[in-house]
Each structure stands twice: as C-alpha cells, then as structure tokens.
Amino acid sequence: MKEGQHEVFLEKAGIEALEGAIAQLRRNGAKSVMILACQGESWRPQTLSPLLQSLGLPVFGGIFPSIIHGGRRLSRGTLVIGFPDHFDVAIVSHLSQGAGVETQLQGLAPMLERAGSLITLVDGLSSNLETFVERLYEAVGVRTTVVGGGAGYLDLVPRPCLLSGSGMIEDAALLVAMPCGIDRGIAHGWKKLEGPFLVTRSHGNVLEELNFSGAFQTYRKLVEAHSGRSFDHEDFFAISKTYPLGIESIDGEFLVRDPIKQTGDTLVCVGEVPQNATLYLLKGESPTLIASAGQAASDALATRQRRLRESAPVGYTALVFDCISRVLFLDEAFADEIRAIEHALPGAERLYGALSIGEIASSRGGVIELMNKSTLVSLF
Amino acid sequence: MQHTLKYVSIQHELGMAIGMALRLHPMLSAFSRVTLRRLGLAAIHFHFVQRHDDLSPADGSAGNPTLTHYLSVPHNASMTPIPDLPALDGNRVECAYRLEHGIEADSHFYSFNLGRIGIITLQRMQTGLEQPIIELLKPLMARLGVSCRASLEHEELLVAVAARHKAEETILFQLRHDDLTHLPNRRQLMQTLEEMRATEIANRSLGALLFLDLDRFKMVNDTLGHSVGDRLLVEVARKLERVVGERGIVHRLSGDEFVILLGNLGGDLEQARSRVDHLLEEIRAEFSDSMIAGEHRLHVTPSTGIELFPDGDCSAEQILRRADTAMYQAKLAGLNSSVYYDRQLSSDLERRREIEKDLQSALKDTAQFELHYQTQHDLDGSCIGAEALLRWHRPGRELLATDLFVSIAEETGLMLDLGRWVIDRACEDIRQLQTRALPPGFRRISINISAVQFNHADFVETLLGAIERHEVDARLVAIELTESALIRNSHGAAAKMALLHEHGIEVAVDDFGTGYSSLAYLSQLPVETIKIDQSFVRDIDSDSGNQAIVGTIIALGRALDIDLIAEGVETESERATLQRIGCTQYQGFLFSRPVPLATLIDAWLGNQCA
C-alpha cells in the first residue's frame, strides 16, 4: 500500500460517519478523496452537498447501482478512498446541451495539458455523452489515457449522481487529472450472431431502420428465432439484455450498443448508433463474458508490464468499471467475473470499482469511446 | 459480402460527413470527428497552400507551393511532424508512411491531395489501413477538396460582404460624424434635435442645447499650427464626452464649436436650469486643468450659450441659432462664461452675429472692401501724407461704420485676415503713387494696425513681405497703432518697432490721449508721430479745457522730439487755434473727406507720372 493511501468502507450511510471517514483519511495523509456509493444508500443532495462543499480538498465520485469492493459486488455501502496526491478535479456541466461543452473544455486546457491520465465520471443518463467524449478527445489527444464510467440510478431517472466539491450534481462530467499513467484493458465478450446490417436510418441513440426495414421488426425476427422467446409475452429488456447490437469498427471489433427500449418500430439504445454504420446482432454467454472480463484485466496488466518494463508488476490499484447490464445478464455468475478479474491481477494491492451505466476509455486507436455492456479494468 | 458492406458503409458515412457546414473550419471539424471514429484514427491533419494564387497552373508546371498547417483534430496533435510531402502537382498525392521513432512511433500516416488546395493526412496507431480502404478514400478526398474550395469561396464571399457592410457603415458614420473627433456632426445634431424637440413636446418636458465655443482657440491654430489645434479639439471632445456621460450627447459643429444636447430635464424650468447649471459647473471644473496637445500643455475654456426648448414653435434651426447668439453674448461677458438665451438682450447680438457671418463671407471675396484715403497737411496746406481708411460695401445692406465691423473682426479673430488684406491693398496703392511725381513734402501713407494684428508673431514679416512684393519704398509707409496695442506688449512692441524703424517705416500713435496714456512708453519706444485724437480737437477754438490738454500733448511731443498731427480738424478756426498752440500738421474734413485712391491722386498729388 502506498503511504497515505487508505480506504474506508461505510456499510451504512450517515453524514457523520462519512465526515469521520474523510477526516481519518486526511489524518493519514490523503490529499484527494474518491467516493463510490451504492444507490441503495439513498444519499441526498440536501445532506451530502454541504459536506462535500466544505471539505477543502479535491473530492470526486458517484452514486452507482452497485460497487465492487473486497472481491464482491455490493448493493449497499459507501467506499471512501484517500489518495496521497493532490488531483485537479474539474466539472464540465450541462452535457445535455452539448453546445457549451467545447468551450468549457477549452477553458480547462492548462489542466488537461498537465494531466498524465484522466479519470472521467459522467452522469450516465445525460444525453450527448458521445459529443462529450468526442470533444474530450479533441482536447486531450492520443497522449492522455482516459478511463471512467457513468454514474446514476438503475431506475434510469435522472437526478444528482456525481459527487464533487460543488456538491451532488447531475448532467455533468468530472475530470480528475492524475499525475501518473493509467494502464487499461477493455473487453465485453459478446459474440457475433447475425449480420452485417447497414444502419440506413438513425437519430442519435434511436435506431430506426436496418437494411431499409424497420429496426425493431428486423431485430425481433432474428432474436425471437434464435431465442425461441417472444416479445409479445415478455418484457422487452428481459430478452434484449441477452442480444445487444455491435457497431463494427474498422478492425472488426464491436462497440456494444444496448437496446433498452422499443418504441413503435424503433429501438432506443444506450449510446449513439451512427447512420451508415455496419451493425451486428450479438449474443452473450456467461462463460465468454466472464472470460472477457479476465481478458480485460490481463490486457491492462500486459500494458503495464510493457510500459513499466516489469515482468510481474505488484503494488498497484485496480479500478474497475463494469457495466451494470452484465450483472443483469450474469446474475449470480457475476461473482465469477470479479474473481476472473482478481485472478488475472495477482499483484494488485487493492481492487475496487463500480457497476456503471456506460464505460469510457481510450481505444487502442486513440479516440475515447463510450461503451455499453463492457468491462474496463484500469491499473495505476 | 460483409467486407463489401463495410467498405460501402464507410464510404457512405464519410461521404455524408462532407460539407456538413458552410464554413471551412466547422466543416472540416465535423468531417474529422466522423472519420476519426469510423477509421479508428488517432488524428487528422490539414495543411493548405498559403494563398489561392499559389496554386500551380493546370499544366502543373509551377513548383511546389508552400503548405501551412491549418487544423488538426485532436487540437494538440498539431505538433505532430509531417514528413516531407510529395509535390502537390495538381493530380495525385496519396502517400503512406510509418514513423518508427519518436513520440509518434508506430504511427501510420496517409496523405491525400485535396484537389490542389492542400493536403489531408490521416494518422493511425499500431495497425495500418487496408488497401481497399485507402482506395475508397481517394474519391472521397477529391470530394472533400471540392467542398473545401466551396467553403473557401464562401468565406471569401463572407469577407467581401463583411467588407462592404463595413464600408457602408463607415460611409454612414462619416456622413453623420466629424472626421477629426468622431463626434456626431451638424447633420446628426439637427436630426437628433428635431427628434428630441418632438419628444419633449410630447412629454411636456424640457431639453437644453448648450453651444460651446472655445475661447482664443484661433490663436492656438495661428500660433502653434493646425496640427496642435486639431489635437486640442480631439482632447476637448473626449473631455466633454467624459463630463456629459450618459446625460446627453456631445456634437462638434465646426471649428471650435461644440454642442451638447440634454434631454428629459423635467417640466419645471427652474429645475431644468439647475441641472444645466450643474453640468456647466462640472465642465468648468474639467476645463480648469490644462490639456495636452502634442508637445504642448494648453489651457482653454469654453464660452457657452444655452437655449432651453421647446419654447413655442421654435424650430430646431432656431433653437441652435438662439444658443449661438447666447454664446456670443457669453463671449462678450468674458472668458469661460455661460449665458442663457434672452430674447430682449439678443437683438443687437444677433445683428453682430449677422455682421460676423457677412464678414466671414466677405473675406472670401474681398471685392467688397475698399481703401479710401484722408489727406494730412502742413501749415501751408500742402499734402504731406494720407491715412488709409477701410470701407466695406455689403451687397444689399447699409454701409457700416468702420469702427463697428473692425471691432467685430477683432472680437471674432477675423482681424488678422482683414488686416492682411488692408496691408496688401495699401502697398499696392502706394506702388501706384510711387510711379507719380509726388509733392515735395509728401511723406507717407498711414495704415491702421489693430492691436491683435500688431501683436501677432508674423506681423512684421507680413508687412515687409507686402512691401517687398509690391516693390514699395518703405519710407512711404507708416503704421498707426493705438495706445492699447503698445501697452499690451510693450517689450515685444519695442523690438518690432525697432525693426520697422530700421526699414524706414514710421510708427504713429493713434487716438492719443484717449487710452492708457502712459507717458513712459513714449520715451522708450521709437514713435515718430502722435496723432491727437479728434475728441480733443473738436471745438478747440472755444474749449479751453481741450486747449490745455492739446497744449500738454504738444509740449510732450516737442520734449521727446515727436511729430504731432491733429485729427478731425473741421474748421479754419480749429486749425488756427491748433497752430496758435503749436500744432502744425492737420487731418480732417477742413481739407478733405476720405476719398478713393484715384481722387486722392487727382485732387492732391498731381495727375502726372514721375
């Protein structure tokens, strides 16, 4: 454990307990604090914001459907982590309005230039998240590694979910500039089932036509044939969580898009589906998903080995953003996914993270991507 | 099939991303965002030829034009070194290369010609692009080049439209503003005043027009030059704007005349006057400090005339004229004064203003002026000289007394121009006299010189210049100065008079006894002649008081060896009395009224050529 780096897990939410935990971390030398809180703790802005605003040290974090701590997925509790370094934390607000994001990022240029890497936490239910990650890449370029995920509540109702020195906020992004480098691995494990299809009409995250036919009808025909289940008899997401869509990259990899809702003949996805993209219907199986999570961890470690030229790195921290929909798909088997990650990182001093609504990471090619149904393992 | 669909979809998506904005930068940014994502690129760089003129001709014969970096996405990728590019030969630039070292090691670069206006370079990390993708990009980049050219032409059009718009704005501005100070001009003033007058009438409220004229500004222009004068005017304009602020609008009418318009002063006359008075106090305070104009620190003050409006059916033009009249009255009250327009007091002033304006016009067309000459005689009645007297024939108006319009010319600074004309014309006339056989005792033609004129820096130069230009014998020239002209600047006067004396020009003191009458200067200055004022001469034959005064003057002249001429001699009895008490030279109606040059020659100087 690095000197001064500590963490405190609070099983039950309470402003005094949180205040005490942060005070303890400060006594131990913490100069920055990260808070990962479960939505089950019901933190409220009225009580939490005044504390966050009065801390006088950089603070960042979010409310997530679940968090990962102690090798387990937890639906209750708040994890407070102290860091011995002072991290610059900036807020980019009004993401849904889109237009002002570029200007805000331009104003942050000096901080972004200094950053070795960035942890980016966003309100996972903000619209225009793609615009944000696009503009973020335009600002930081290929030399700054970006990792992060979307905070928010599983009921998909927008409300304050990001924790910052300005209090609990929503429709925003937190940019945490870390002086050190971050090594990341990303994987999803979803496999090609049918395709390719040409996206002949779409608007943002609403997929309207595939191969010039209604998107839902095309999707329904394929999924019902493969699953033997019917959308007429079951909830849409109960079936669709097993059959996401994949936007094919030029290298043949898939950027997963989760269809969460059907409206008429259209599919509403988490994340944009560009018109003229080539799209595949994907299928998930527990073993491949679990294996992919382990692969993400292994890839992150391999990157670290190459960067630090160490054959067996030890003493690092693993921060995981794993999509909440993988839990919904894997259910009890999700514990195996955490074990797979832990298993791939024998030298990790600690491992924690959150089950996120969307994952954000620099791709191998450079651009920052907003992903669904993926596992992001970052090491620092 | 699946590769084909992939290539088609890439081509389609990138094609749709071209030309999504009219302006070049947003258009390329939008295209870059889609292309970065779709092709998994790390960066895109654009380099353009510096100017369209640099484009090589169609045959590609010209050399490689200079490329400059225009845009990179992401923005901080602009430092990425672009290797030497192949010649932009107007046809094809497609090259691929890979960097193996340095910060961008393991990057693949693909450059494409953008229709001879520049180059786009795609940067990809780790793995390169497949050849079919490179092939499909070629026609896309040609299209992008066309779009870039269209955007550039659009931007040039925008620049041209903006330039035209700006030019129109400039013309409109110039039409309504003064070039020097950029303040609204007379045209704008009259429009604003008309609108303000209508508003005040509608609101039953009062407005005020303050007409400011800088005191002694003409002297600044005449002595320090127009460049300094202009700087001073600009400084005054800024000062007035500062003081007035949001309360009103400052205009420059012409020359050193400024107008302040104040609106919405309320319906109560006393309150309105009080607000105007408050502003006047602030202006006075502001002008109490000197101003910097070039290398000079100058102190100027304004004379201000004020008219409150509306007043009956008074038009905008009348409001301005009234304030102008009040300003004139302020001038008479002394420096830095302000006066409200008063109908009863103003009629005489309006007449003076009318004369001033006529005088200004007349100085542009000097045919209205004429010199008449009144002879001077000795004891024997012989003509020994003549005094040049100015006459002004105003077209369609009555003949004005010389004293009246000369005093207006002195007050308004027009005297210098008028005086120069008098000197020039007198010298021209003297030149005519020189060509004739003048009587043996004829000594000079006297020219009246005002104090303003005499004290001006270039007076001697002007006089000697005229004498030289007309080839006049300077000994035939005398100048007549009033006592006040000498007293005001006796040190400078002495130097000038000494210089004139050296050239043989006589100096006479006019109207002696009516002014300051400091006897000291008479002994110190090179004065040749004293002219005894006609007020002492009138009825001297019966007025023992005048006899005593004139006797004293004569004694003084004798003691200082100064000649004496009595002015205004109208009767033989007066002349005889003057002779009896010792004055032997005379001028007045007894001998001759002032007459034109031709009459002078015919009647007194013998109509013969020399």
From TrEMBL, chain A:
<feature type="domain" description="FIST">
    <location>
        <begin position="31"/>
        <end position="214"/>
    </location>
</feature>
<dbReference type="Pfam" id="PF08495">
    <property type="entry name" value="FIST"/>
</dbReference>
<protein>
    <submittedName>
        <fullName>Uncharacterized conserved protein, contains FIST_N domain</fullName>
    </submittedName>
</protein>
<feature type="domain" description="FIST C-domain">
    <location>
        <begin position="215"/>
        <end position="363"/>
    </location>
</feature>
<dbReference type="InterPro" id="IPR013702">
    <property type="entry name" value="FIST_domain_N"/>
</dbReference>
<dbReference type="Pfam" id="PF10442">
    <property type="entry name" value="FIST_C"/>
</dbReference>
<dbReference type="InterPro" id="IPR019494">
    <property type="entry name" value="FIST_C"/>
</dbReference>
Automatic annotation (TrEMBL), chain B:
<dbReference type="InterPro" id="IPR029787">
    <property type="entry name" value="Nucleotide_cyclase"/>
</dbReference>
<dbReference type="InterPro" id="IPR001633">
    <property type="entry name" value="EAL_dom"/>
</dbReference>
<feature type="domain" description="GGDEF">
    <location>
        <begin position="205"/>
        <end position="343"/>
    </location>
</feature>
<dbReference type="InterPro" id="IPR043128">
    <property type="entry name" value="Rev_trsase/Diguanyl_cyclase"/>
</dbReference>
<dbReference type="Pfam" id="PF00990">
    <property type="entry name" value="GGDEF"/>
</dbReference>
<dbReference type="InterPro" id="IPR052155">
    <property type="entry name" value="Biofilm_reg_signaling"/>
</dbReference>
<feature type="domain" description="EAL">
    <location>
        <begin position="352"/>
        <end position="608"/>
    </location>
</feature>
<dbReference type="InterPro" id="IPR000160">
    <property type="entry name" value="GGDEF_dom"/>
</dbReference>
<dbReference type="InterPro" id="IPR035919">
    <property type="entry name" value="EAL_sf"/>
</dbReference>
<protein>
    <submittedName>
        <fullName>Diguanylate cyclase/phosphodiesterase</fullName>
    </submittedName>
</protein>
<dbReference type="Pfam" id="PF00563">
    <property type="entry name" value="EAL"/>
</dbReference>
